[in-house]
Specification:
mainly beta, four-stranded antiparallel beta sheet
């Protein structure tokens, strides 16, 4: 069965850190472009970060640049390290894998930044 499963979300204080993981099963992530998106209540889904399969380059939204780091390991998992979290980072975070016409989404994991 082909699927992406996110984990690692939770409640964290402002300034804290979380590490989100996205584990793939049924296919290999190596050839796929991997992205993290997020959607806050009442807002549209937005791109947060992506990892290019072609050259392993990474890209970040301006709102998270310098605080978030995306990486891919050899275990078919992509992580999003999130530091210096702010209340405005509160959202459901989704992992996406894309290869030409194939696109897979995870079910999402909730991140809440609040004191």
């Amino acid at each position: 069965q082909v699927q992406l499963v996110e984990s690692g979300g939770g409640l964290v204080l402002p300034g804290g850190s979380l590490t989100l993981s996205c584990a793939a099963s049924g296919f290999t992530l190596q050839q796929y472009a991997i992205s993290w998106f997020r959607q806050a209540p009442g807002k549209e889904r937005e791109g947060v970060s992506c990892f290019s399969a072609s050259d392993a380059s990474t890209h970040y939204a301006d709102s998270v640049k310098g605080r978030f780091t995306i990486s891919r390991d050899a275990k078919n998992t992509v992580t999003l390290q999130m530091n210096s979290l702010k209340p405005e980072d509160t959202a459901v975070y989704y992992c996406n894998a894309r290869l030409i016409t194939k696109t897979y989404w995870g079910q999402g994991t909730q991140v809440t930044v609040s004191s």
